Amino acid sequence: MLKIKELCAGYGEMPVLREIFLSIEKGSIVSVVGSNGAGKTTLLNAISGIVKSNGSIICNGEEINFLPAHAIVKRGIVHVPEGRKIFPEMTVIENLKMGAFLQQKTYQKNLENVFALFPRLAERKKQLGGTMSGGEQQMLAIGRGLMGNPKLLLLDEPSLGLSPLFTEIVFNAITEIRKSGVTILIVEQNVYQSLRISDRGFVIETGRIVLSGTGKELLENHDVKKAFLGM
Amino acid sequence: MLFLQSLISGLLTGGVYALAGMGMSMVFGVMNVSNFAHGDLMMLGMYLAYFAFTLLNIDPYLSLVLIIPLAFMFGYVLEKVFINRVIHHPHQNQILLTIGLGLIMSNSALLAFTSDPRILTTSYSSSSFTVFRDVSVSVPLLLSFIITCGITALLYLFLSGTRTGMALRATSQNREAAQLMGINVSRITAIAFGIGTALAAAAGALIAPTYYIHPLAGHSFLLKAFTICVLGGLGSVVGATVGGLIIGVVEALSSVYLSSDWKDVVVFVLFLAVLLFRPQGLFGKKGDQ
After folding, report:
1. Sheet holding A2-11, edge to edge
2. Is the model's pLDDT at B238 over the cut of 90?
3. Over the stretch A194-204, which tens digit does the pLDDT of each residue have?
4. CATH number of the domain that A147 lies in?
5. Which pairs with CB-CB distance under 8 Å and at least 24 residues apart come from A61-67?
6. Does the structure show a pLDDT above 70 at B286?
7. Burial of B280 (0-12, 13-18, 19+ CB in 10 A)
8. Residue A106 belongs to what domain range?
9. Which residues of B touch A73 (CB under 8 A)?
10. Chain B closest CA to A103's CA: distance in Å?
């Protein structure tokens, strides 16, 4: 599905990603975990074209690095950004409409699916995005992403700042989304939750992948336990 | 009666101010750029209306049909060639660039049209009708107000109902998220500047029959448009509409009850008061820049 080779990116003189290698199998859930500032968000921003990067990102055999962000969305790579970034002065329904900006034909079908996944959004159709709680905004952000018919869904810290209840809802939704055939790349600080549902995990440290394995392997790994799980 | 009279003429003039303010607000909202060439773009609209009338014999209000698309294209190109180079740069760079562009426009106009003020006189320029005892309404002001309402309604429908309009709103609310929806933000940005320019030129053309047409006429309007934006909340189209009407009424009332020399003073006292007590403006959101 996605193959990343020698990906480097940075802000000005400051390198953030140093030669990242990563590959994602179709239909899987892959987690990238790491501490603050390790380069997780930059990795997703580089894939979705928001941050310029060097190296190669190949999606289904096509080189997509150097494409503008809107062209990457068109190829089915949908990024749900950190901090949700919903449109605060648009209603829930308008936000979802924006998610379907390039996928007008499947709007109705996707809308039903999103409402089935997050019934809360259906109850709040007319509410302004900016007035919703953090958990609801996260549902809206994921729902908005699904409106774009993703083949690969990039989720940046979907559980950040959420109550345990909402975290549970969000992670359940992620496994549901995978069942519908969407490949998922999650970047998380909630290492336990994300590795638990992942087929593969990668540990990123100061811009390099330092460890990889199946979700289960990493959860049992001594270093991972010590660094992230406090065991 | 005097109060009612000045209230009405204030509202009518305020409508055109609102149009100018909306253009500036649209550019600020989508691009986060303060366009200091806005007044000069208005001045170009005034001259376009003037020459359409004197050379081609087109009524100044009718000429909007030509001026609006022409100004839109001019703004679109201006953004593609100049403005988009500074869009991610600090505000002072943007201000320098737009002031520079404005200076080039006003000085080119000085060279081409000389500094003699011109007056666009139509057959109905000084006609008015009485609505109620001794309260009268000037025909050109009323016409321009009605057209302003029409343009505002169209703009509102465009922003709320069309795909491009939605993309404009999305880009102004969160540029990065808009990109992630698949919106080509660089195209949307150029469209926003095109619309801003078209609104400025339309306001200029609408005010041309009741105002002196002069290469430096834009400067006082720039200040007014800026005040309107700050008053209504930068980036808010609704705010700019209300801000424009308020400024129009305040000007009219203060020139009647104080003196016309004092009207600018009152407007700027109001401006400072807004900055002091409600810096986000009437319709702005707290925490916006």
Report:
1. A14-24, A2-11, A53-59, A62-63
2. no
3. 999 999 999 99
4. 3.40.50.300
5. A65/A7
6. no
7. middle
8. 2-229
9. 180-182
10. 10
